[in-house]
Every structure is written in structure tokens, then in C-alpha cells.
Write a structure and sequence with these properties.
The complex is a heterotrimer. Chain A is mainly alpha-helical. Chain A contains three helices and two strands. Helices cover 82% and strands 7% of the residues of chain A. In chain A, strands 1-2 form a two-stranded antiparallel ribbon. In chain A, a hairpin with a 2-residue loop joins strand 1 and strand 2. In chain A, helix 2 runs antiparallel to helix 3. The longest helix of chain A is centred in the middle third of the chain and has 133 residues. The radius of gyration of chain A is 69 Å and the shape is rod-shaped. Chain B is 90% helix and 0% strand. By secondary structure, chain C is mainly α. The longest helix of chain C is centred in the last third of the chain and has 46 residues. In chain C, 40% of the residues are buried. The mean pLDDT of chain C is 87.
């Protein structure tokens, strides 16, 4: 009959295999087994089965199961990362296109604005040119009219002066019987008229 | 404790082996009870401080949690040794 | 008077051999390994390029949990090669803890000293081998005669370090898992026995039987609690292993 004594001491375990037991000892042993295992001491069969199960699990996991799972995970994550990068690239390109379009739009807008400005400036120039021309014409005409009026007035005045001189000369001749000095009469008439004209 | 067990044994009219067992049982109860006091306070302190740290710096919560579990594990070991002694004595 | 006959602790964790040298704890250990292998086998068969569902999702969550929450937090990026070992450790311990709350099985395999003990010994061997491999003999000398403490303190600190590395770490690793699971198991047994005794008590008190609901709800609550404890203990066992491996690689931290 094989029996095992296991003692737990400070982190290590001592397993002593006892090859055979005297009959009396064996009886004691079976009685102890009837009572149940010690709650603290490990049992050899549990220890060995546990080690076996764990080592098989560990070796399989290390060599087969984990690498396969991890490879799949890495592949998927790699694909997801690549897809992300692709999406980023596409987004960047789209943004660049939008920026290009915006720039084009801006140049076109600027050109249009400059054209409008040029036309407006031209129009302004034309208008001011016309305006000055017209003003000039008006001023010329006004000046011509003013000179004409002045001439007419001077003519009318000389006519009136001559008439006044003639009338005055006739009056003086008639009243005094003697012809007055023509120069005096004309000066007097001119004085009177200029007073009248100025008043 | 000794006198308590002697009183129990005399009252029940038990022999010396029974008295030894009664001593062991009482000792086991005290062993676990006393062993639970320190770690109880210690774990409370560890967790309280960890919560404080997490509330102050939520971005460091993962690190704090890991360290908290480590601290709890080390503190708790004392109580568990008390529990093992309880089983050994109460056997 | 309520006669509550609590079974002796040996009876609670004693299981008849299913056949010689094979009992329930061994069965749970083998089942844990088998279930773990089949989960990862089935997960590996699924198409990896589509979004993971079902068993593959479970496996990948486990892998990412180990990588992000355990390896990256303790060893760092160059420790990612330890992921399969830590993943195996975590899955095995968790699947050994879980039967504590599964009806019919009702026994966490880690509540027997054998399971935590051999796991702790494996971890002990691994982190010491890693230490010697990465630092040569200075792993041992740096442990016994640390250079970053004052000379007067070195014998004391060295002794503490040595004891902690060689004796206390595997001991506390094993005892922590074992005692946690055994304590949880005992709690469940206590409330189950109490519920049973109250329900079937031969008493004339009318109120006693309806009051069975109190320990019964405690039993339910503790069962939920044990789910959490099972996960937490597997996590702590794994993260402590990772911490020890990390410390053995770079002892100056």
C-alpha cells in the first residue's frame, strides 16, 4: 500500500512517499481517511491532478491557443487601423479639394470684384467728364449771354444818351436861343444817367 | 480564558481532553477575532485613500485601482493567516 | 431551543473518491482546464476579421484584460510575452473558484490547499528563474545585500528581502487564495445549514419557520458576493504574479 505524507512548511512542501506500512499503521491510515482530509494539508492526488491539468492548459495555451487568437486579433486591429488611416487619407484629400475649390472661388470672386470696380471707375470717370463738359458749356453760354446783354445795354445807353443830348440841346437852344457846348451837355447827361443807373 | 474553559468543563463534568478542546475552540475564536481587527482598519484606510485619490485625479483611476487591490491583498493576508490559525486550532 | 448541528469542517470539504486517486477537487481542476482549453479553441476557430461575438468575445476580453489591466500596469510593454502564462493562470484560478457557487459542484477547488499550493510553487519557480535570467547572480546578491540602503541597515533589509522573496511571497500567495475561498465556502455552508435547521426545526414557535427567509436571503447575497470574490481573488493572484515577475526583472524598483 502506497502512502504519502505531506508537510507544509514555510513556502515549500515536502512530499515523502512511504513504500509500505505495517498492518496496524494501515488500519490507522484508513481510519484517518474515514474522518476526512485535513483542511490545511494538501492531498497528493489533488496536487498531481491539478498540476497535470494546469500544465496541459498552460502548454496548449502557450503553443497553440494564444498565438492563434492573438494573430487573429492583431490582424483585425491591423485592418481596422489601416481602414482608419485610409479614411483619414480620404478625409484629408476631400478637405484639400474643398480648400482648392475655395481658393479658386476666391480668385474668381476677386477677379469679378476687380472687374466691377474697373467698370465702376470708368463709369465714374465718364460721368464726371460729361459733367465738367456740360458745366463748361453752360458757363460759356452764360458768359456769352452776359456779354451780349452788356453790349445791348451799352448800345441802348448810348442811344438814350444821344437822345437825351439831342433833347437837352434842343431844349437849351430853344430856351436860351443859343446852342450849348455839346461836350458839356453830353457830360451832364452821362452823369445823370450813371446816377440813375447806379441808384 | 483558561478560567472560563475550566468553569465550562467543571459545570459539564468533562475530562481533561475535553478541556483541551474547549481551550482550543475559545483560542480559535479569539485568534480570528483579533486577527480581523488590524486588517479591517487597514483595508478601510487603503480603500478610503484610494477613493480620495480617484476623486481628486479621475484620469489616474486605473493606476490607483491596481495599487489599491495590491494594498488590499497584502493587508488582507494577515487576516487570512488568522483564519488559517482559526481552522488549525478549531480542528 | 434550536438544535444547530454544524458539521465538522472536515465533513464540509470531504469528498468521496470518484475512483481511486480522483476526487471532486481533481475533477474540478480537470474541468477548469478543459473548459479553458475549449473556450480558447472555439474562439480561435471563429473568423477573426469580423467583430468578435460569443465565445471569441469572451476570449478576447480576457486577453485584453490581462494585457491592459495586469501586464501594462505592472511589468510594462516588454512584459507582454507573459500574457499567455498570466492568462492561463487567471482563467484556471477563476474556473477553479467558480464551482463554489455552481449547484451540484458546490465546491471551489481552490479551497483545498493543493491547488493554490502548486500554483504558488510554479509562480515562485518562474519569478526566481526570471530574476536569475535577467540579472544573473546579482539577483541573489542584490536581494541579500541591497545597494540602495545605508550599510548599517543592509543585513536587516537583506534578511527581510530574502525572507519575503523566498518564503513569504509564495506562502502568502497560496494562503491568500486558499483562505479566501475556504472562508467563502464556510460562510455559504453556515447559512445553508442555518436555513435548513430553521426550516425543519421541530418547534412549537410559529415565527421560527417564516424567519428562515432571513438566513436564506443572506445565503443568496453571499452567493453573489462569492462571484465577486472568485473574480477578485483570481485577479489578485494574477496581478501579484505579474508584480513579482516585474520585480524580479528590475529589482531596483
Amino acid at each position: 500500500m502506497q502512502s504519502v505524507t505531506v508537510t507544509l512548511g514555510g513556502g515549500g512542501v515536502q512530499v515523502v512517499l512511504l513504500p509500505g506500512l505495517a498492518p496496524a499503521q494501515a488500519e490507522e491510515e484508513t481510519e484517518a481517511l474515514e474522518e476526512g482530509p485535513s483542511p490545511i494539508a494538501p492531498e497528493a492526488k489533488e496536487l498531481l491532478w491539478g498540476i497535470g491539468a494546469f500544465v496541459v492548459f498552460l502548454v496548449l495555451m502557450r503553443l497553440v491557443l494564444f498565438p492563434k487568437l492573438k494573430k487573429g486579433m492583431d490582424a483585425r486591429y491591423g485592418k481596422i487601423r489601416a481602414d482608419h488611416e485610409e479614411a483619414d487619407a480620404v478625409r484629408e484629400q476631400a478637405l484639400r479639394e474643398v480648400a482648392d475649390y475655395q481658393a479658386e472661388l476666391d480668385t474668381v470672386k476677386a477677379e469679378a470684384a476687380s472687374r466691377v470696380d474697373a467698370v465702376r471707375r470708368q463709369l465714374d470717370n465718364e460721368r464726371s467728364g460729361r459733367l465738367t463738359e456740360v458745366n463748361q458749356q453752360i458757363a460759356e453760354q452764360r458768359a456769352a449771354a452776359a456779354t451780349a446783354a452788356e453790349e445791348r445795354r451799352a448800345a441802348a445807353r448810348s442811344t438814350v444818351e444821344a437822345a437825351v443830348v439831342a433833347v437837352t440841346t434842343a431844349l437849351v437852344e430853344r430856351s436860351t436861343g443859343r446852342a450849348p457846348d455839346a461836350e458839356t451837355v453830353r457830360r451832364a447827361a452821362s452823369d445823370v444817367m450813371s446816377v440813375g443807373a447806379s441808384s | 480564558m483558561e478560567s472560563l474553559s475550566r468553569l465550562i468543563v467543571e459545570q459539564a463534568g468533562l475530562n481533561a481532553d475535553d478541556q483541551k478542546a474547549a481551550n482550543a475552540a475559545i483560542g480559535a475564536g479569539f485568534a480570528y477575532g483579533l486577527a480581523a481587527i488590524g486588517p479591517g482598519i487597514g483595508i478601510g484606510y487603503v480603500v478610503g485613500k484610494a477613493i480620495e485619490a480617484m476623486a481628486r485625479q479621475p484620469e489616474a483611476a486605473g493606476m490607483v485601482r491596481t495599487t489599491m487591490f495590491l494594498g488590499i491583498a497584502f493587508t488582507e493576508a494577515l487576516a487570512l493567516i488568522g483564519f488559517v490559525v482559526f481552522i488549525l486550532l478549531g480542528l | 431551543m434550536l438544535a444547530l448541528e454544524f458539521p465538522p469542517i472536515n465533513e464540509v470539504i470531504r469528498w468521496k473518491d470518484l475512483f481511486p486517486t480522483f476526487n471532486k477537487v481533481a475533477l474540478i481542476g480537470c474541468l477548469a482546464a478543459l473548459i479553458g482549453i475549449s473556450i480558447f479553441l472555439l474562439a480561435g476557430r471563429k473568423n477573426p476579421m469580423v467583430a468578435p461575438t460569443g465565445v471569441r468575445n469572451v476570449a478576447e476580453t480576457g486577453v485584453e484584460f490581462i494585457e491592459d489591466q495586469i501586464v501594462m500596469q505592472t511589468i510594462g510593454r516588454d512584459g507582454l510575452g507573459w500574457t499567455p502564462f498570466l492568462l492561463t493562470l487567471f482563467v484556471f484560478v477563476y474556473l477553479c473558484n467558480l464551482p463554489g457557487i455552481i449547484p451540484v459542484l458546490q465546491m471551489p477547488a481552490t479551497a483545498r490547499m493543493a491547488m493554490p499550493l502548486f500554483l504558488a510553487v510554479i509562480v515562485w519557480v518562474i519569478y526566481n528563474v526570471v530574476g536569475f535570467k535577467h540579472n544573473g547572480l546579482s539577483y541573489l546578491t542584490g536581494m541579500v545585500w541591497p545597494h540602495n540602503v545605508p550599510v548599517a541597515m543592509r543585513p536587516l533589509v537583506g534578511l527581510i528581502e530574502f525572507l519575503s522573496n523566498i518564503v513569504l511571497r509564495p506562502f502568502s500567495l497560496a494562503v491568500r487564495l486558499f483562505a479566501n475561498m475556504l472562508a467563502g465556502h464556510m460562510l455559504l455552508v453556515t447559512f445553508a445549514v442555518l436555513s435548513n435547521a430553521m426550516l425543519f426545526a421541530e418547534t412549537k414557535q410559529v415565527l421560527l419557520k417564516p424567519m428562515t427567509i432571513l438566513p436564506f436571503f443572506m445565503l443568496l447575497f453571499l452567493t453573489l458576493f462569492e462571484v465577486l470574490v472568485g473574480f477578485l481573488q483570481a485577479y489578485i493572484f494574477t496581478i501579484l504574479t505579474a508584480v513579482y515577475i516585474g520585480l524580479a526583472r528590475h529589482p531596483e524598483h
